[in-house]
Amino acid sequence: MKATRLTVARPQVADAAAQLLGALDEAAAAANDRVALLASEARFPGVAAARRELAGAQAALAGLLPALRRQLRQPQLEYKAVINQGEHMIELPVDFRGVPKARAVAP
Question: Hey, where are the domains in the chain?
Answer without folding.
Answer: 1-39, 41-95
